[in-house]
Amino acid sequence: MAGNDSIKAAEDRPDSLVGDDTTPIGADTIGVVASAAAEAAAKKRKVKRRDLKAKIRALEAEIEETRSQVLDEPLYGMTPKLEAAVVRALEEERFSIMPRLLRPLHPADQADLIERLDADDRASLINAMGAALDPEVLVYLDETVREEILSHLDEAQIVRFLSVLDSDDAVDLIGELDEDEQARILQAVPAKDRMILEQGLTFPESSAGRLMQREIVVVPSHWTVGQTIDFLRTVRDLPDDFYAIYAVDPAHRPVGELVLSHLLRTKRPVRVSDIARKDFRRIPVTMDQEEVALLFRQYGLVAAPVVGEDERLLGVITVDDVVDVIDEEAEEDLMRLGGVTEVDLYGSLWDTARARFPWLVVNLGTAIAASVVIGFFDAAIEKVVALAVLMPIVASMGGNAGTQTLTVAVRAMAMRDLDTRNAMKFVAKETLVGSLNGVVFAVLVAGVSMLWFGDVQIAWIIAVAMVLNLLVAGLVGTLIPLGLERIKVDPAVASGVFLTTVTDVVGFFVFLGLATLVLL
What we know:
Blueprint: H1 2-12, E1 17-18, E2 24-25, H2 27-72, H3 80-91, H4 98-102, H5 107-116, H6 119-129, H7 136-140, H8 143-150, H9 155-164, H10 167-175, H11 179-188, H12 191-201, H13 208-211, E3 218-220, H14 225-234, E4 244-248, E5 254-259, H15 260-265, H16 272-275, E6 283-284, H17 289-299, E7 303-307, E8 313-318, H18 319-337, H19 343-346, H20 349-375, H21 378-383, H22 385-414, H23 423-453, H24 456-486, H25 491-519
Parallel strand pairs: 3-4, 6-7
Antiparallel strand pairs: 1-2, 4-5, 7-8
Helix pairs in contact: 9-10, 9-11, 10-12, 17-18, 18-25, 20-25, 22-23, 22-24, 22-25, 23-24, 24-25
């Protein structure tokens, strides 16, 4: 009965709950339970935050360790560990750490890292860097990669870069944009910078006008050393780095070059015109950059002024820019000799294949020409199988010997060491070298042929063919680039194709022709 009364009492109180057995649970108890649940949830959040902070600290420690390793390096350069850390962070989409990870690196090393990444990772890295991307990085990038990176930057970012970079680098940068984008960017650039950029774009590509920088220190020729030093100390918009000061006349024509070391060692009352060099080199604004590099190399220049047609001073070219030109020209010549271009390394699959296609077509034509020559002597090859075995030796030796001569000739012409004055002497020397090597290798290959086939006639045939083919290789290896230079065709581009054709055709014709006359 008592239990029933308790149940009835509970039923009569709708605002109460029934607990275990007959004990009711009121609102206060519910509050305690809810508070405990909230406290447990808060503890879980604390644990998660603590774990997250621990992960962040571990990641920061890894970054600092990697950065310290880079900073401790005695030379500039990427370390494998840092490169792996960057790639791993990109794969895990930890983009926020990129600025801190790359900040200690020199811009050249950042550019090297960007070039090693694939296209998708490059885009991710550039977006992750955002405003932290150093404009100097673009200067060190390969041209193909730089064009790709520019496509990921908005116009405001490009405008900011143009305002920060040296004028020569800024002109190179905007010159890689299409005309419509150039016009939009120029409208957003401050008027002073716009005038410099527009003037730079009027000069031909690969000319001194594109290479020069407009930041230059100029003083009137009647100033004293003291006035010049005071000017250098007080003016704010001096170039960050400069190697010489140029004294100009009232028409802004350079009349003297003043080296800083001479300036600092001279007393203040001395006039600038009295200590300035008068025999300095002036570079025309339209001179090709390859000619500029030759001037710097020939005369050991550190800096040289650039002048217009009216001899007015326009800018200056410094040795650091010339080093880039020398490297660029050497790389270009080397790649052209192989029938490839810069896009082969950094371009897409399709662009690389398309760039190589024309030269492969030309090589196919030369191979067909050689095959036609072989076809003239198919009867001899059918009767004397040894001819087919020995044919590749003659062609290969001629091609290699010709390539050696061609490489020397093209490089000498690029350095201006070979021209019409000493051309005949060079041709005679290389022809004699080819003949001498031909005799030596004729003896060797004749001996091998005798041991192999035991036929004296075949040994004599391949020996004579070897001498003649190497002689021709030395001759055409010099005449082809000289002839192409005469008709204003770059020898580095087309010489290899013609050389291969000549050495193959001559080698097969002489070898198989002699065999036909002697053996049949």
